[in-house]
Design a protein that fits this description.
By secondary structure, the chain is α+β, with helices and mostly antiparallel strands. The chain has helices spanning about 35-45, 90-95, 125-135, 190, 205-215, 275-285, 300-310; strands spanning about 10-20, 50-55, 60, 65-70, 75-80, 100-110, 140-150, 155-165, 175-185, 225-230, 235-245, 245-255, 260-270, 290-295, 315-325, 330-340. It has one domain: S-adenosylmethionine decarboxylase. It is about 20% helix and about 35% strand. It binds S-adenosylmethionine.
Length: about 350
């Protein structure tokens, strides 16, 4: 297995649970002790490097990306050659001991830069879906797997969802929320240099991370957010942001030849997502960018809002696709590349 660089593209898993009596479990999954979390992460093959919490959730920076733990929801995002799906069995097991049962599962990822370096079950989307089908309990019976295409075969969006409850029309929810997952490659090399540390800088990963957050303008994306950041040695950066019960997260692999950065956040459809998108583009100036928005309802102007924000910054929309997933809602997948490039 020849590995030529670090795989920045993350795998992302979101699991929701329910308890018979939610009032009895106000902390729910947040009561999981650190040893149990470490065992889950050992199965995935990554470790915790930093952690913060607020009254809504706990956010962990991992050696390979991030983990968010809410009372009845867990989100794990890991890159490199981690085996993310191996976390499902131990998580179901530990949640069961807290009186919680799995009710929803969503797995997403982009297209790996080094697919041949991935271990089972991440060897192909077919293998991942078979593993998910065999691993998640039968009560999650509404299932769907799909690869959302783009014009370029090297950029597609892989989605699997499974839910135990009958899908319903989310328009009845009070607020339309979206999750935005952005994957960027071919970062501007001058901007990417800001994610390298100086040799023997004498700083800790936390203090070097804080400096990168400020120097790059990442702290201006959401000035309200509490940021937990970490700089790897000699390069690489991860951060988690907390703003009430909304998270955001950024991970950067700045090495030339396989540079990659991701940005993910939750937001309300009624908020202006333009500021966030413009800041993200300005921080990384990517050659190619994919933006996937998952919304608990249908918003027909989602892709126009996204394109209107990023196109004036020199990116051109090359493709867009939309699909519906049980209980996850509608997913819009758009790809952009710098106007100077032809794709
Ligand atoms: C963990 S970070 C960010 C992860 C994120 N998914 C990404 O790749 O964009 C990955 C970057 O940190 C660097 N790095 C340095 N030490 C590392 C370590 N011990 N574990 C993981 N990555 C490390 C990698 O070379 C890479 O540039």
């Amino acid at each position: 297995m020849a590995v030529s660089g670090f795989e920045g593209f993350e795998k992302r898993l979101e699991l929701h649970f329910f308890g018979d009596d939610p009032a009895m479990f106000p902390l729910g999954l947040r009561k999981l002790d650190f040893e149990s979390l470490e065992q889950v992460l050992e199965a995935v093959q990554c470790t915790v490097v930093s952690a913060v919490g607020n009254s809504y959730f706990d956010a962990y920076v991992l050696s390979e990306s991030s983990l968010f733990v809410y009372p009845t929801k867990i989100i794990i995002k890991t890159c490199g050659t981690t085996q993310l799906l191996k976390s499902i069995i131990p998580l179901i097991h530990y949640a069961h001991h807290l009186g919680l049962t799995l009710s929803f599962c969503r797995y997403t990822r982009g297209s790996f830069i080094f697919p041949k370096a991935q271990p089972f079950p991440h060897t192909s989307f077919k293998d991942e879906v078979s593993y998910l089908q065999d691993t998640i309990p039968p009560n999650l019976c509404f299932r769907k797997a799909s690869i959302m295409p783009s014009k370029s075969s090297s950029h597609s969006w892989h989605v699997f969802t499974a839910t135990s409850h009958v899908p319903y029309d989310h328009h009845h929810d009070n607020e339309l929320l979206f999750t935005m997952e952005i994957c960027m490659t071919e970062l501007d090399p001058i901007l990417a240099r800001k994610f390298f540390r100086r040799a023997e800088d004498g700083k800790s990963g936390d203090s070097a991370g804080k400096e990168m957050t400020e120097v790059t303008g990442i702290n201006e994306i959401n000035p309200e957010a509490l940021i937990c950041d970490f700089a790897f040695d000699p390069c690489g950066y991860s951060m988690n942001g907390m703003d009430g019960d909304w998270y955001s997260t950024i991970h950067v692999t700045p090495e030339d030849g396989f540079s990659y950065a991701s940005f993910e956040c939750v937001g309300s459809v009624s908020d202006n997502m333009g500021h966030v998108l413009r800041k993200v583009v300005q921080i990384f100036r990517p050659g190619t960018m994919s933006i996937s928005t998952t919304c608990n309802g249908y918003t027909n102007d989602m892709w126009t809002q996204v394109a209107t924000a990023v196109e004036p910054l020199g990116l051109k929309c090359r493709s867009r696709a939309m699909d519906q997933f049980p209980a996850a809602g509608s997913v819009v997948f758009q790809t952009f590349s710098a106007r100077r490039k032809s794709v």
